[in-house]
Description:
Blueprint lengths: L38 H16 L4 H10 L12 H7 L1
Amino acid sequence: MAVQDNSAQTEQGLQWQEFAACRGPLGSVFFPPPITERKREKLARERKAKQICQACPVMNECRDYSIAIREPHGVWGGLSEKERRVLL
C-alpha cells in the first residue's frame, strides 16, 4: 500500500482506527515513555503491545498504514520501529 501524499488521507481512509485494540488506556504501551527506559523494559512493553495487536481486528490496516507513512515511532500493526525499518 503506497500513500502518495499524507494530506490526501481522508477520514474514510482512516476509519479503521476506530476499531483498533490500542485505543484507550492500553495505548500507552505502544510508544516509549517520556523518560529513558531500559532495554528489558522496552522489550517487555513491546511484547505487551504486540500481544494486543494479535487480537486487533484492524492489525493489517494498521501495519500497512505505518509502513506507507514511514512511521518512525512505536508499535504499529504488530511491528516495532526496527521491524518496520527492515521492510522499507
